[in-house]
Amino acid sequence: MREPLRHDPVTLDEAKAARRRIAGAVVRTPLARLNVESAPAEIYLKLENLQPVGSFKLRGVTNAVRSIPEAELAGGVWTVSAGNTAQALAWAARELRIPATAVVPDNAPETKLANIERLGGRYVKAPFEDFARVFASRSHPGVSGRFIHPFSNPDVMAGNATIGLEILEDLPDVDAVVAAYGGGGLSCGVASAVKAARPGARVYAAEAATSAPLAAALDAGEPTRISYSLSFVDAIGSPIVQPEMFSLARTLLDGSLVVGLDDTAQAVRLLANRNRVIAEGGAAAPVAAALAGMAGGGKVACVVSGGNIDPVTLAAILEGGLP
After folding, report:
1. Distance (Å, rounded) from C-alpha 234 to C-alpha 108?
2. Is 227 a domain residue?
3. Looking at 122, 147, 172, which one is the last position of a domain?
4. Which among 59, 58, 96, 60 is positioned nearest to 77, based on CA atoms?
5. CA 237, CA 212: separation in Å to the nearest integer?
6. Residues 46-58: pLDDT tens digits?
7. Together in a domain, 234 and 99
8. Does residue 2 belong to any structural domain of this protein?
9. Do 162 and 11 touch, CB atoms closer than 8 A?
10. CATH assignment of the domain containing 252
11. Taking the model in full, what pTM does it have?
12. What is the mean pLDDT of residues 144-161?
């Protein structure tokens, strides 16, 4: 069965239905103030790293799996992922006692690969270019079952939108929300809920300077292939924005905030030292952008999307290095 694409924003009704569907399986994460003496805004942290699999991906994946008729799950499920969606899918599939497979890049962090196996899933490594093509082709040799797209699946985005609902409940006068842009499912899902309930709030994507396809696409007015550099910010960025997500991002988001690796590493250190929060590179990028004043003043909520960072990488950053 060919998976549907998302071409329009998630509605509030869809987000609320997703929240009911995932209740009990997903943590309602706290919104904590960033412990800094001075900053260009009041910065708050939506701590999705506290989900059972260490990232926000559990929301969308659980909503997607629970929305599929049982008969269509008999052959198992699969996805394409740098690690976090794969872990979430393994978790959700384990509950249903069905197999879960992920196509992962050959540079995927060992921490994430080990977690996939620990949760009962399996993975298939592919060279990065082959891995990147799966996002558009939605197929890979030797892999079968029900495919769940990590970001443009309608139910995945609706699950992600529940983050926006919770932010507004805890901080109803929020001025801006910043979420990392990997494939767009997180930032566009969150923006759908926030913009529908609080139209005056700004919602931004955060990208790493070494791989910022959304910023390039917004500048060009269309998806544009960029030079992609691998870094410790491994969960976000790609050679190009998928067309269906670009149309949504251009409608829902107020821009892309591009941060450097040094500032992102500093945000990882700050989160660990001041709030005792472990964040992977992509999850720290929104905080780096907010600290730089890119999201403006007022009350800014940053989605700390995941904490699945390789221990060696984290140690190097905490010691002041740049992996």
Report:
1. 8
2. yes
3. 147
4. 96
5. 6
6. 999 999 999 999 9
7. no
8. no
9. no
10. 3.40.50.1100
11. 0.93
12. 94
Task: Identify whether residues 200 and 306 lie together within a single domain.
Answer: yes
Residue entry with tokens 């994460």: 29
Q: Same domain for 98 and 165?
A: no
What sign does the CA torsion over 279, 46, 228, 81 have? positive
Looking at the fold, whether 124 and 200 belong to one and the same domain comes out as no
Choose the final residue of a domain: 147, 174, 207.
147
Structural domain contains residue 5: no
Task: Report the domain count for the chain.
Answer: 2
Tell me the pLDDT tens digit for each residue of 203-252: 999 999 999 999 999 999 999 999 888 888 877 888 889 888 999 999 99
